[in-house]
Amino acid sequence: MSVRRLADENVQPAAFAFSDENAAWAEATIKKYPEGRQQSAVIPLLMRAQEQDGWVTRAAIEKVAAMLSMPLIRVLEVATFYTQFQLKPVGTKAHIQVCGTTPCMLRGAGDLINVCKKKINAAALEPNAEGTLSWEEVECQGACANAPMVMIFKDAYEDLTPERLEEIIDTFEAGRGDEIKPGPQIDRWFSAPEGGFTSLTDDDDDAGAAREDENRRQCRYARGDRRCKR
Ligand code: FES
C-alpha cells in the first residue's frame, strides 16, 4: 500500500463548492440517514466531489467536514484510507488502478503494470504528457476469482491480458471508454467457469430453465440494462 497524502499546496484550489445540481443531490443524500447519523454521508459526498472536480481536493474535504459537522481529521481519515479517492489530479480520460495483491500478482498483474508504464508513465500517479491517462497499483479490489484486473473509475475490467489492457487504454484515450463492457474480458459470466457451467448441467426441468433465465437477467442488469429490473 502506498503512502496516501494530500496533493502539494501548489495544486490545491483555494476553495470548493458543489455545483447547484450536486448541492441539491448532497442535501437529499444527507437526509436519507436517520437523525444523528448524517455523518454516514461522508463517503457519498466525497465521491460526488471527486466526480465533479476529478479528484478530492483539500478544500473539498474541508467543505464536506463543514456540511456534516464532522471534525476535519475524521474526513481526512476517510479520504486518505480508501484508494477509490484520488488525492491529486489524475488522468482526465482514465485513471487505471491495477490490483497487485497476491491472486492478481500470480495471474500477471506485473505484466499489466508494465503496460501502464509503457503506455502512460513510468511512474505511478504521474499523468502522461497529455494529462489524459494515469495509473497506480492498488490492493485487492474484490474480484480475485477473475484475476488479474484493473479498476477504471467505478468499473472493474477482469480476466485481463496485457494485450486486452492495451486495447482498453487506447479506447479510453480515444474517448470511447463507455463502449467497453466492464467485468470479465473473456467469455464467461461474472466468476462462473470459463466455457460454461460445470455443475447442475443435467438440470433440464423448469426450475433449471428459470434459474438460467434469472442468471441472464441479472447479468444484463449488471451490464447496465435497466429494463430488466432487479
Ligand atoms: S487480488 Fe486482485 S482483485 Fe483480489
Q: Care to give the gist of this entry?
A:
This protein has 230 residues and is of the alpha/beta class. The chain has three domains: 9-81, Arc Repressor Mutant, subunit A (Orthogonal Bundle); 94-184, 3-Layer(aba) Sandwich (Glutaredoxin); 197-230. The chain is 39% helix and 9% strand.
Record the SSE blueprint:
Layout: H1 20-31, H2 42-53, H3 58-67, H4 72-81, E1 94-99, H5 102-106, H6 109-119, E2 133-138, E3 150-152, E4 155-158, H7 162-173, E5 183-184, H8 206-222
Helix pairs in contact: 2-3, 3-4, 6-7
The chain binds FE2/S2 (inorganic) cluster (FES).
Residues 99, 101, 103-104, 140-144, 147, 149 line the site of FE2/S2 (inorganic) cluster.
Mean pLDDT level: 92
The helix count comes to 8
Shape annotation: globular
N-to-C SSE string, H for helix and E for strand: HHHHEHHEEEHEH
Strand order of the largest sheet: 2-1-3-4-5
What would you give as the CATH superfamily of the largest domain? Glutaredoxin
Strand count = 5
**Small molecules in complex:** FE2/S2 (inorganic) cluster
Which regions have little confidence, pLDDT < 50, spanning 5+ residues?
A: none
CATH fold-level name of the largest domain: Glutaredoxin
Radius of gyration: 20 Å
What CATH architecture of the largest domain do you see?
A: 3-Layer(aba) Sandwich
Q: What count of domains describes the coordinates?
A: 3
Derived structural class? alpha/beta
Share in helix: 25-40%
